[in-house]
Amino acid sequence: MSVKISRNTRINGLLLLVVVALAVLPLALGLGDHKEQPFSGSDGEAETAITELDPDYEPWFSPLYEPPSGEIESALFALQAALGAGFLAYYFGLRRGRRQGQARAAAAVTGADGAADGDGDGAVGAAAVTGADAPAAKAEAESTPAADEGGAGAAAPPVDGRGV
Question: Where is 124: in which H helix or E strand?
Answer without folding.
Answer: strand 123-124
